[in-house]
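> call design_seq(struct)
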């Protein structure tokens, strides 16, 4: 099935990480900080929504800080920093944990990959059988891609490589771009380059000089993945006091889940790096923000 990168990589309730990452690689630190603080999210509580709206309309103010709930720690620390250092947007961004800073870059890479995968499907290009210009990588016995040893497919080698892809030995890949990005050639390469151009990333070197540890070399990722040991069974309903707030509220307008459908248990194994939420969506067909 398509090896989409799951919604949790982007922030399923507030898809902010990739947007912040784009500003970071473009060295637009003011946009990066303010986007993280103020971007609107779905189903946010009224106090959080009011805080973010105030920042969007009025910028960084003391009143805005007072509107921020205490538990909104990252945003509060960033806002406090900008109140004391109005021009230090890099310093405000650094108030985020190091792993979250890096996640913004990874999320941006993931958007490029997902858009590449989507465009191949929209154009009727195979994601399982390579064509000339594709980059394919070897899969080990656990389904892990050897991304450092990808091979360029040529017209003369396409039939042989295609057979090995069907046997699960090789896999067609898509880009997770970076400083040393290697794109495909031919039609697949034109598609990848068009995605980067559409996103305004085609002329970037992915060097983050202000925070060097955020610089990434880039890599390749399999366009497809597989699952094993798949079973489905009925499951007893859990006690009400062990269920979350969303369950107790029930389906809201626009949602596509039903309590009766929640009493199923799926079991399966995936290779590392693949998302269980994506496989489940192949069966549930729910919007990504409901996974």
């Amino acid at each position: 099935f398509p090896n989409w990168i799951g919604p949790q990589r982007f922030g399923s309730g507030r898809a902010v990480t990739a947007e912040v990452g784009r500003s970071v690689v473009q060295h637009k630190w003011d946009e990066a900080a303010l986007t993280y603080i103020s971007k609107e999210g779905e189903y946010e509580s009224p106090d959080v929504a009011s805080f973010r709206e105030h920042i969007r309309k009025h910028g960084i103010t003391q009143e805005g800080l007072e509107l921020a709930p205490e538990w909104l720690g990252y945003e509060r620390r960033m806002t406090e920093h900008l109140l004391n250092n109005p021009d230090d947007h890099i310093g405000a961004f650094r108030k985020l944990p190091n792993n979250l800073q890096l996640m913004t870059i990874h999320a941006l890479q993931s958007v490029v990959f997902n858009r590449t995968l989507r465009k191949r499907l929209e154009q009727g290009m195979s994601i399982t059988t390579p064509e000339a210009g594709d980059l394919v990588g070897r899969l080990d016995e656990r389904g892990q891609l050897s991304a450092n040893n990808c091979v360029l497919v040529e017209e003369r080698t396409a039939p042989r490589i295609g057979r090995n892809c069907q046997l699960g030995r090789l896999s067609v890949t898509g880009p997770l771009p970076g400083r040393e990005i290697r794109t495909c050639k031919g039609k697949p390469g034109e598609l990848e380059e068009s995605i980067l151009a559409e996103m305004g990333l085609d002329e970037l070197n992915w060097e983050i000089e202000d925070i060097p540890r955020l610089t990434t070399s880039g890599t390749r990722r399999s366009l497809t993945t597989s699952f094993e040991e798949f079973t489905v069974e009925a499951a007893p309903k859990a006690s009400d006091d062990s269920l979350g707030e969303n369950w107790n509220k029930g389906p809201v307008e626009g949602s596509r889940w039903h309590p009766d459908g929640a009493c199923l248990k799926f079991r399966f194994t995936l290779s590392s790096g693949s998302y269980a939420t994506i496989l489940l969506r192949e069966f549930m067909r729910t919007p990504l923000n409901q996974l």
